[in-house]
Amino acid sequence: MEYETVGEFLAYIKKKFGEKDKEMVKVTELKRIEQKGKTIEEFAQEFRRVARDSRYKGRLLVKEFKKGMNGNICQRLIKSKQ
Q1: What's the pLDDT band for 37 if we cut at 50, 70, 90?
Q2: What is the DSSP letter of 61?
Q3: Which of 17, 44, 45, 67 has its CA 20 to 30 A from that of 34?
């Protein structure tokens, strides 16, 4: 397949791989998100926004959420289940 301009070629690449790139960016962002100084409600809201396009589901999503939470909150949740 030949392209007359670089723009046509780049448009083809974006069309072909754009959605996968978007998903990969969301997955990367999801893995890096941290609660830090945010309340748990603020963190949960941000996490949901990022997770929406990541295609993560179920246990994998829960694992990433726990990983991003402040350690003391996570420990309290674990103790409360015992």
Answers
A1: very high
A2: H
A3: 17
* Tokens describing residue 75: 């420990």
Place of tokens 């962002």: 29
Distances (CA, A) of 75 to 27, 66, 79, 80: 25, 10, 6, 9
Show the tokens assigned to 69: 């939470």
**38-60 pLDDT per residue, tens:** 999 999 999 999 898 788 899 99
Q: What is this structure's pTM?
A: 0.66
CB-based contact 18:53 (threshold 8 Å): no
Distance of CA 57 to the CA centre of its chain: 11
What is d(CA 70, CA 55) in angstroms, rounded to the nearest whole number? 24
